[in-house]
Structure formats: C-alpha cells, structure tokens
Write a structure and sequence with these properties.
Helices cover about 30% and strands about 15% of the residues. With about 450 residues, it is of the alpha/beta class.
Length: about 450
C-alpha cells in the first residue's frame, strides 16, 4: 500500500445488481473443469475497493472542470477509413479510426483521402491519417485478439483524452485491437446529408460491428461507450438483444434518462450557465462546421440555431425538427436508454459517479439494475463527469474498465451461453403461487423496453 493511501481521501464504491437473479459466467479451464462465477463477483474483483482521487479536486464540479485542462499527453495513433451507410434510410458517411502502431508524422499527414471530400479544411485530429488503399486491403485477419469498439461523448471523437486513457493500457502490449466509431460530423469529418447524429443514432455502430465481425471472424468483440456514446451503445445493445455480436460492454457516465438529466442541468446556475452553455456552444460549433450541408435541410432554421445558448435549446432548434420530434423533451424521452437495459442480453458493466453534474444521480437506474441479471452498475461517491482524476494525473476509472475487459476476454469462456441463475428475463411478470392466493388470471401485458415513439426502421 502506498504511503499516500493513508492521507488521500477515499470515495465510496458501491455495486447495484440483481441479488435474486445473477448472471452466471463460465471460467476457462485447462483441465476441463467447469467453474462458474457471477457477473457481480467478476465486476467486484475488477474494481479497486477504494476510489482515492486528487484531494485538490474534492467534488464533482472540480473533477469535471479538470477534464478541460490539458495535463498529459497519451500518444495513441490512428488510421481512418470512411464508410458509406449501408441503408438508404440512414444515408451518409461516417469515420472509423483504427488504433495502429506509432508512425512518423509528416507534413502530408494532415491530409485527406485522394479526392479530399472527407475532411474539413483544418485537417485531421493529431496522430490521425487515412489508410492507403493497400493498408486497408491488408486489414482482414484470422487472429483471435480481443477487439474493442469505442463510442465517444457529445461532439467528441477518437482524439478525446479520456478515451486515450482507456486505450493506453490495453492496446499494444496489452494484446487488444481497437477502433473508434466517430459520430457523423465529429472528429473532423464532413457530413453528406442534412442531419447530424442524435442520442439514439445506433445505425453506424451496428454497421461497424457487422463489418468487424466479417473482417475479423475470430476476434471476440467488446464495446465501450462514454457519456452520450454510452447512451447510444446501451440503445444499440437493447435493439440487438440476443442477436448482439458483442461479447460484453462497458458504459461510462451514461446520462440514462435524458429528460431528467436535462431538467437537472436547467435547475441550477452552474448546470445552466456552465455545463449546458458549454455543451450548447460545442454543438453550435459543430453545426457551423457543417452549416453548408445542414442548411439544405428544409426543416432547419439556421438563424434560430445560431441564436441558441444552451444545449436543450440546440436540441429544440435542430434535433427535434430534424428527426421529427415536436419538442426536445419528446426527443429525450424517446432517445433515453434507461429502459433499453431491460433488453440487453450480454454482460455489461456500468461506471457512474454520484456527484456527476451532467449524468446526474437522479437519472441513474438503481431500480432497473436490481431487475436485470445482465448488468452491474458501480457507483462512486466522487469523480465528476468522466473525471476520476487521481493525485499525480492518472484516472481511477481506467482500472476497473481495463480489469473487467481483460477478465471477460481472458478468463471467461465466451463460447458458453450466459445464463441467469433463475432464468427470469428482465420485464417478465412475477407470480407468487402460495396456496392462499387465487389463480393468476390478471392480464399479462408484454413489456417492450425498445418500443419507440418515432417510427424509425432499423438497419437489417
């Protein structure tokens, strides 16, 4: 134990999961013995018992604010490929950045592809270049390395420091491959239709996973989403259900209930004038980068978007009209992932800080996690939004994430089905059959966690 552990304050670490119906995982064994563990026990063993963070960042606001300080450099190198959507309903293009070995950057590396239609005038993010056709053609592989698919937060991209913190210990010597699915318009990519991504924009990650499954047939695939990317990933996992091609997933700082989270931001001065205003400004900048294309959409009033100040105003002016929602709150209710977790059928691990000022505590699905065997939510009393900064610059959340992923990939037999202890699926009606009770003749409605108010066909 480090001497600092005696003096650094420690946040409380708690776990929330179904006590009556836990998910059973089968461990790998060289001797042929079938030993089992539960998802809850695996998550506990992956997570440090204490959450000791920087004492100078002693609350969620300071932890969150510190994410804007460029305090370290983690050199992750990418090569990019643009993908055209495989369904006309969601036409357009998006970028996937693949983690690659370090390469020497040249003046020509802030370049575009051969016809310069994919990137903005300012070039690509640092340490990011396009694949050559020869390099991309050489990608397919029969190796069985675990591969991680990452989704970034609001208006972010593969360059985000929190994302690179997670990648650093698992790629390279860690033995993992990884790629980042950039939301449309983010990370210096152009859009080719008059819409940006939204909080339930699952079609690009679906296409990416299908392509990865075909290109790397022997690699077990895992997913991780951060903030809004966690919301998108949770919705994707729910939409896929038992057909999901990912073996396990991690959700970090998910806002879960977008309406509750938005109202919480509007209720306080800091929430409105610091966080909502900052996020609104970020989305306005993204809008301006693509205004030439977006302005062609007849539903978009460009001047109205330019007058907005806060994030909910942006969603009211752009996302609602673009996607067909009458209000931003209708959009939030439809795009929230809080019910989607009931439809997830793979192991998933969630990390949330209870002092997170953006993914607020009152939006966390404590009750929902008590009803599904497939998920475990770990909460810390301290950490902010995607912060968790330790004394010295490290980030605590990297440890449970890397440990969980490595345990799932290297210690669990992924070919064996994941079985709930009591074989009770989330949302199924319970019936207490004691002799003193009457026969159960009440209507048994079928709860559909993935029911959408907006009629949007899924990509097949």
């Amino acid at each position: 134990m480090s001497p600092l552990s005696w003096v650094l304050p420690s946040g409380q670490v708690s776990f929330h999961y179904s006590k009556e119906n836990q998910l059973l995982l089968t461990k790998k064994s060289e001797k042929g013995e079938k030993k089992q563990t539960t998802l809850a026990d695996l998550c506990r063993s992956a997570t440090p018992a204490t959450c000791q963070l920087n004492p100078f960042l002693f609350n969620g606001h300071l932890q969150t604010a510190y994410t804007t300080v460029k305090n370290c450099d983690i050199p992750i190198y990418y090569k990019r490929r643009m993908f055209e959507a495989d369904n006309a309903v969601y036409s357009g293009q998006f970028a996937i950045d693949f983690v690659v070995d370090p390469y020497e950057e040249t003046d020509d590396d802030q370049r575009t592809d051969k016809d310069r239609k994919y990137t903005l005038p300012s070039g690509l993010p640092p340490r990011t270049v396009f694949f050559t056709e020869e390099e991309f053609a050489a990608l397919p592989s029969d190796d069985n390395k675990p591969m991680l698919v990452l989704l970034h937060g609001l208006s972010g991209g593969s360059h985000e420091i929190y994302l690179r913190h997670v990648l650093s210990p698992i790629v390279g010597e860690g033995g993992w491959e990884a790629c980042v699915v950039n939301s449309r318009g983010c990370a210096q990519t152009k859009i080719s239709t008059g819409v940006l991504y939204n909080a339930r924009a699952t079609w690009d990650v679906r296409q990416a996973v299908k392509w990865l499954r075909k290109t790397f047939p022997n690699r077990p695939l895992f997913g991780i989403g951060f903030s809004l990317g966690a919301n998108i990933l949770a919705n994707y996992l729910g939409e896929e259900g038992e057909a999901c091609q990912l073996k396990a997933a991690v959700l970090v700082a998910n806002p879960w209930n977008l309406e509750v989270s938005s109202l919480a931001l509007q209720r306080s001065y800091l929430g409105l004038e610091a966080y909502s205003k900052t996020m609104g400004s970020s989305m306005k900048r993204l809008f301006e980068q693509h205004v030439e294309e977006v302005s062609k959409n007849p539903r978009v009033n460009v001047e109205e978007v330019r007058r907005i100040t806060y994030l909910h105003e942006f969603d009211r002016a752009l996302q609602g009209p673009t996607w067909g929602y009458p209000t931003e709150t209708a959009y939030y209710r439809d795009a929230s992932s809080v019910d989607s977790l009931f439809a997830i059928r793979i192991p998933f691990f969630t990390l949330q800080a209870e002092d997170d000022p953006i993914s607020t505590k009152e939006a966390l699905p404590y009750q929902e996690f008590s009803k599904t065997p497939y998920g475990v939510m770990c909460t810390t009393s301290w950490g902010g939004h995607l912060g968790w900064f330790e004394y010295g610059g490290g980030r605590w959340f990297v440890k449970p994430i890397a440990n969980f992923l490595n345990k799932m990939a290297k210690e669990i037999d992924l070919s064996t089905p994941f079985v709930p202890e009591n074989d009770i699926l989330p949302g199924r009606m319970s019936s207490h059959s004691e002799t003193a009770k009457d026969p159960d003749t009440a209507p048994k409605p079928n709860f559909n966690p993935m029911r959408r108010k907006l009629g949007m066909p899924l990509v097949p």
